[in-house]
Amino acid sequence: MKQNKFDRKFYLVREDVLPEAMKKTLEAKEMIERGRAESVWEAVNKVDLSRSAFYKYRDTVFAFHTVVKERIITLFFHLEDRSGTLSELLGVVASTGCNVLTIHQTIPLQGRANVTMSLNVTEMVVEMDEMLNKLRRLEFVDKVEVLGSGA
Predict the structure, then answer these.
(1) Would the pLDDT of 113 be above 90?
(2) At 132, phi and psi to the nearest 5?
(3) Strand, helix or coil at 116?
(4) Topology of domain 72-149, per CATH?
(5) d(C-alpha 83, C-alpha 81), whole Å
């Protein structure tokens, strides 16, 4: 029995476990999308991928940021409790073009606090991974997790 498009299952998979052909397909798609390659032929040559592999995977493998349809994500932070941390965190979020929809912060215990933040990422000016890496590099951030995306 043939599966229709609404019965398909999707999985979120870490990049390091993807086959090389899938990684290169994603890279080629991004080159085309960003104008760094003018054609499929040019993109696959730049990433050393066959055109047949590209066409095999192009409609089946997607970067995380391209499948966030509702453009709302929820992030969880575990932070050191010190003056100005939330303000600095919000500054980084704002610099990426995200709009904060909700913030929930727990009462700090043992010098740590949890913050859950929902963001509208429609106007984000950087890739999702770049924003998450910026947040993770903040000195007072112990942990950043994407809890979910949706409306």
Answers:
(1) yes
(2) -60, -40
(3) strand
(4) Alpha-Beta Plaits (3.30.70)
(5) 7
